[in-house]
Amino acid sequence: MRAFSRAYGSSPLHLAVAAAAFLIAGYAGFRALSKGPVLPQGEWFLGAILLHDMVLIPVYSAVLIGLIYVIGGRAAREGTPIPRVRLLVLNHLRVPAGLALLALLVFFPLILGFSEGGLMGVSSLSTDPYLPRFLFMTLALFAISAALLAVRLARGRRGGETPPRADE
Amino acid sequence: MLTRLLHRTFGMDPEARSLPGPQPPDRGPFRRDFWKSPLRGPWLASILSSALLPLILICALTGFLSHVAYETEYPGNSVTGGDALLGPVYSILDWPAGFAWLYAINQGLHVTSGLAAIPILFAKLWTVIPKLWERPALRSLAHAVERISLALLVGASLFVFATGVLNIQIYYPFGFGFVPAHYYAAFIFIAALVFHIATKAPDLARAFRDRGVVAPLRDDVEHTEPEPSDSSESAPTAPRPATISRRGFVGAVAAGSVGLGLIGAGQSIGGAFRPLGLLAPRGQTYGTGPNDFQVNKTAMGAGITPSDTGANWRLELQGAQTIELSREDLMNMPMSTQTLPIGCVEGWSTTQTWTGVPLRDLGRLAGVDDPSALFVKSIQDAVLGQATLNAAQAADPRSLLALQVNGADLSPNHGYPARVIVPALPGVHNTKWVKRLVFRAA
Description:
heterodimer, A: about 0% strand, disordered C terminus, B: 5-stranded mixed sheet, 5-stranded antiparallel sheet, 11 helices, elongated
């Protein structure tokens, strides 16, 4: 038991459960690939990991860090806490922007019209309304965020020394 | 108790033999101090996992239940067919006709929980991304096994979510069939997830024990401290000052989750709630006429021509004897009116009032009083251009061969001259433009 643990790195049960999981995954993978075609399914599986971990995360992280430097000013460059007002502006911009981009990422086929042929064929409806709806929703998100920001800034100014509570 | 047991059996042996092989360079993202966010750490990963897990369980369970509802053991009922793992379970379980909204609710939950899980999944992957770059890359055989399982977990989760999201929007940029790929990737996802939970549940328990489940949500941005760097590879060693509190971060993720969930719920519940489905594929409305409701497959898209459905159309009834009926013959039979939903596998539904001849009356006319199954064939020549109903569905008095909807004749898009409508049946199995009914004797 001790020798196994030294050689493997964990208990035999760890290996057994992993083996069971790999067996099921292997069977499912075999069934999916035998339905074919092999290559596109493999590309989408591996591509999803690479696209997310090597493209999506670096790109949005770079944009978010850039935003911190632009809005955070000298404090951000020096690595000291960013003043409250600047932080509020930062967050009241990036949260609605993030939500809008999330909606775009999920519903881009409808919003950008890639689904036009498909949707028309099944429902007789066009994708035309989705871009205006998305823009309206984005506008509404920024408007709500701006209103909340105004309330917080006003409350902060009136409150004087009382430490600001809200910050999202 | 359980987590201590899990920790003892699934924990890593610190004295394990390390694997030979090259190490990644001590540069860039391979350095711990490359990762600056003070929010990353085991508590954040745990709170996100706690929100994600129930949604994934609902999504997986309803997904597999949908295969029960498709009655995959009948030929032609499903695209996937059976598999060796759950196929036997599907053939034992009979989908009931009882509660009419069962399938609509099942699929509403499937698609809505899936949509709501997306922002949490992204946040979770962001939280643990430093672990992808950890050094040493492989500490032991067990560690290598865990990393392979994580590749399966991440790949399969992104794969099922991406294919599902594209499928509900009728957009198929991938060169493979949606149903089997989505279905089998779910097996990989769930198998890898079970192993992941077994290995990580102790970490989750420890994070909540050390920091409390909700206590970190109380800190504002000035009081947002990083988690100890030795608590996990995901916790930072050289964090920058917080720019958002954990409450703010979790709140923004929750807003995304609730928002996508509402969009899904809007098209799922339909009716007065449909406008909530602002960006949903079925978030649009038609006009105000009796046939102005959600269409799945237009007559034109299905290749149905006016000559197929004109005066020469006959319904072929097969049973103990074969009978042909014109639409006029059917209209002269005793009719029943039922309010029933169409619940689509894609997570939308629409409830309408249908009038037509009960299927069991047509069975009696064909000489089969208690059919063991009912095979329905459409004029449409397509993969799901036919469906087989089980005994309970064929016998239910609410199951109709509908000729009218909301007091008017069916429109071509809704299946004129006649369509099937059955309680709790998957939408696509409510066959339109019916050509033949075959009642199988018990």
